[in-house]
């Protein structure tokens, strides 16, 4: 298709139509749409014929019907593009993105994204509103579950892996999708951890922490970018100069920018636009190409063009970006993009996909504490499974697309399948966020068993977009349930289900074993059973620090030093130091923490040189021995710049590798350190690597087992 020739044939109104996106509801019942949602938006039947894209449709049959009706009505015969939020699976759900980041396994993330793309593309999805790679450090923020946590390097690697998985061998293939990276930029720094709230950060913060992950996804060939809802440094992201200065000019990005849901319409509420017309002028002037679910472009672009406030060249440039996307997707040849109901049904919850979701749930789980209790012996005669999440199907987590809770395996079901139903005693004990009328029965169940599994957490609706919390402790009476159950049976392992790090110091104090399951998805219960009984060996490491108290938030590992630092993990107040009167400074569990059933012994770290010259590299060799069963270890390399022109982090992850060890095996893991890995943005916004001493550390944040120094000369 010659999209330039097609553009020349289009009227101005048809061009504007390509720059709009609406819910499928506007196209499923034409009469209701015209008298209902479309009328409310001020859209005519003629406008609807030219709309360029759709979101939130029910499946392949509806998608095909909408596409057929559109192609019959659109004067230019330009197919719509169909988009959806496929965040962690389509129908087969794997763990939430925050959990997947804890796997530290980009290949696993890519495989899961491929699975999602197969199911979603067969269902009619051509563009995915993912990955979300916003930098986050406040556990109160609800949307943290959709992120990769507090480390930009990890977020960029995992985001790029998702982009690669979605696109497969090419976005024109019927089993692939184009990726839309979001939310540009600094959405995860919303003040007070409150969604849609403003973020205010320096350009250094933006360049050091926020921007790298978006750039990594664009380098991996994400095809769209979505600005965030909130205002950043006083200007809403949809109309922020950052879009043009960094995205277009500095990075040379010439793909589609699409607003978030009604974000252009909300510019009046932000107080930066007097009316809808000014909102359209601002958004389009900052090169936001496509307007999602508001109608400022339809209502105003013609008038703005007549007044000379936008140019025909600007409109043509934006429309060409949309047409090129459709051409790359192959929609002019196959407007369905391979959508097929029979193929979709054969993929949903198939054995291969369930097996991958189960493996992902196993690798994403993080063993936070283990005083030798786990793994349990399969010869156990009776095990009690207790708590509000013991038989809870609602463990898919927010943004689980077309996943259904009823298809999800519970912990009780997983243990029953592994051990036999007659060996499993069940007692809910209490509701997740309500009363605790079953305490006595839970206590009796714990006493009647050789061991207990206590399933605690926050309801899945407590995290996700708009679901922020000021109190990130276990809700309801769960802590009281834990005290009574563990007192009744000291052989109690605690499983935590949540969409964010929770503050659980009271559980850490009394429980002999704690495992963070996050929201593990369709196969969560089977994965839990495998992990509890050693059929799977925990290998997840925290992508997000766990605070001791909400009062520490935001707490994150790569903070800078101060003139009066407090680095020890003491709760005592020292005075005139950067600490608290009533709480230790360090998190309860630091970034990178995670235990295993293996025993990994870090024996030695050697450097190929103790001087690094410009253009050169240093090899860092780490010798590790596994003194236990077969398992995987995430080897993490951190750096500290001893003295620089700007304050630098006290610790910074610069490389990692997940390595499998056989029982009793030894490995030497090699990292290559270059000058770019040491660099930073200075006060004048130049990316520099300054001469001086650097320290390298092996271990995890705040807890290092090997150290050495070199000098950059």
Note down, in words, how this protein is organized:
With 713 residues, the chain is an alpha/beta fold. Among the domains are: 357-532, Glycoside hydrolase family 3 C-terminal domain (Rossmann fold, 3-Layer(aba) Sandwich), CATH 3.40.50; 600-712, Immunoglobulin-like (Sandwich), CATH 2.60.40.10. Helices cover 32% and strands 19% of the residues. It contains 24 helices and 26 strands. The strands form 6 sheets. The protein has an 8-stranded parallel beta sheet. α10 links the parallel β4 and β5 (178-184). α18 (351-364) packs across α23 (524-532) and α19 packs across α23. The longest helix is centred in the middle third of the chain and has 18 residues, at 312-329. The N and C termini lie far apart (55 Å).
Protein traits:
713 residues; alpha/beta; Rossmann fold; Immunoglobulin-like; 8-stranded parallel beta sheet; 6-stranded mixed beta sheet
Q: What is the number of strand segments? A: 26
Biggest pleated-sheet summary = 8 strands, parallel
Helix percentage range: 25-40%
Number of H/I helices: 24
Q: Note the quaternary state here.
A: single chain
User: Could you list the spans in which at least 5 consecutive residues all have pLDDT below 50?
Assistant: none
Sheet with most strands: strand arrangement: 9-6-5-4-3-2-1-10
In CATH terms, the superfamily of the domain at 357-532 is Glycoside hydrolase family 3 C-terminal domain
Distance between the termini: 55 Å
Instruction: Just name the CATH architecture of the domain at 357-532.
Output: 3-Layer(aba) Sandwich
User: So what's the CATH class of the domain at 357-532?
Assistant: Alpha Beta
């Amino acid at each position: 298709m010659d999209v330039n020739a097609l553009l020349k044939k289009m009227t101005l109104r048809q061009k504007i139509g390509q720059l709009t996106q609406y819910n499928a509801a506007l196209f499923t019942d034409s009469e209701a749409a015209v008298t209902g949602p479309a009328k409310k938006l001020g859209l005519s039947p003629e406008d609807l014929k030219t709309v360029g894209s759709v979101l939130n449709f029910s499946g392949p049959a509806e998608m095909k019907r909408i596409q057929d009706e559109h192609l019959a009505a659109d004067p230019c015969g330009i197919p719509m593009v169909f988009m959806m939020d496929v965040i962690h699976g389509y129908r087969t759900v794997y763990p939430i993105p925050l959990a997947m980041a804890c796997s530290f396994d980009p290949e696993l993330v890519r495989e899961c994204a491929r699975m999602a793309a197969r199911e979603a593309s067969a269902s009619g999805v051509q563009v995915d509103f993912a990955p979300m790679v916003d930098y986050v450090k406040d556990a109160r923020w609800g949307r943290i579950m959709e992120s990769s946590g507090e480390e930009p390097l990890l977020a960029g690697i995992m985001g790029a892996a998702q982009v690669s998985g979605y696109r497969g061998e090419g976005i024109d293939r019927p089993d692939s999708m184009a990726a839309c990276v979001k939310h540009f930029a600094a959405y995860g720094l919303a003040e007070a951890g409150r969604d849609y709230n403003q973020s205010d950060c320096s350009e250094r913060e933006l360049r050091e922490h926020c921007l790298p992950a978006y750039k990594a996804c664009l380098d991996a060939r994400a095809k769209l970018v979505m600005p965030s809802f909130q205002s950043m440094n006083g200007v809403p992201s949809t109309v922020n100069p950052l879009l043009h200065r960094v995205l277009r000019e500095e990075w040379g990005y010439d793909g589609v920018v699409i607003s978030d849901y009604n974000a252009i319409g909300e510019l009046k509420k932000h107080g930066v636009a007097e009316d809808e017309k000014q909102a359209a002028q601002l958004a389009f002037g900052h090169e936001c190409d496509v307007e999602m679910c508001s109608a400022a472009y339809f209502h105003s672009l013609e008038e703005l063009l007549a007044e000379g406030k936008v140019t025909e060249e600007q409109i043509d440039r934006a429309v060409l970006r949309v047409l090129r996307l459709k051409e790359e997707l192959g929609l002019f040849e196959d407007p369905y993009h391979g959508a097929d109901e029979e193929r979709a049904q054969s993929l949903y919850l198939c054995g291969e996909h369930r097996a991958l979701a189960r493996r992902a749930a196993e690798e994403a789980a993080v063993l936070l504490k283990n005083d030798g209790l786990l793994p349990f012996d399969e010869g156990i005669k009776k095990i009690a499974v207790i708590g509000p999440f013991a038989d809870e199907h609602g463990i898919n987590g927010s943004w689980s697309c077309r996943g259904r809770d009823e298809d999800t395996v519970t912990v009780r079901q997983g243990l029953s399948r592994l051990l036999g139903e007659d060996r499993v005693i069940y007692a809910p004990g209490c509701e997740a966020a309500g009363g605790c009328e079953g305490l006595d029965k839970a206590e009796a169940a714990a006493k009647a068993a050789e061991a207990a599994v206590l399933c605690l957490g926050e309801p899945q609706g407590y995290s996700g977009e708009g679901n922020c919390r000021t109190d990130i402790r276990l809700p309801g009476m769960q802590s009281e349930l834990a005290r009574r159950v563990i007192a009744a049976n000291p052989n109690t392992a605690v499983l935590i289900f949540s969409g964010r790090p929770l503050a659980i110091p009271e559980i850490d104090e009394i429980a002999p074993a704690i495992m963070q399951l996050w929201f593990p998805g369709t196969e969560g219960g089977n994965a839990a059973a495998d992990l509890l009984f050693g059929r799977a060996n925990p290998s997840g490491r925290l992508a997000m620090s766990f605070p001791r108290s909400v009062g520490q938030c935001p707490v994150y590992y790569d903070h800078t030093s101060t003139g009066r630092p407090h680095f020890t993990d003491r709760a005592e107040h020292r005075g005139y130091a950067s600490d608290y009167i009533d709480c230790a400074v360090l998190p309860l569990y630091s970034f990178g923490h995670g235990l295993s059933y293996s025993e990994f012994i870090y024996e030695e770290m050697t450097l190929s040189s103790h001087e690094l010259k410009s253009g050169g590299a240093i090899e860092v060799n780490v010798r590790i021995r596994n003194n236990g069963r077969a398992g995987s270890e995430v080897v993490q390399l951190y750096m500290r710049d001893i003295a620089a022109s700007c304050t630098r982090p006290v610790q910074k992850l610069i490389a990692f590798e997940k390595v499998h060890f056989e029982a009793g095996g030894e490995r030497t893991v090699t990292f290559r350190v270059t000058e770019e890995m040491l660099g930073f943005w200075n006060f004048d916004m130049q990316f520099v690597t300054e001469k001086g001493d650097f320290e390298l550390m092996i271990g995890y944040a705040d807890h290092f087992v090997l150290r050495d120094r070199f000098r950059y000369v």
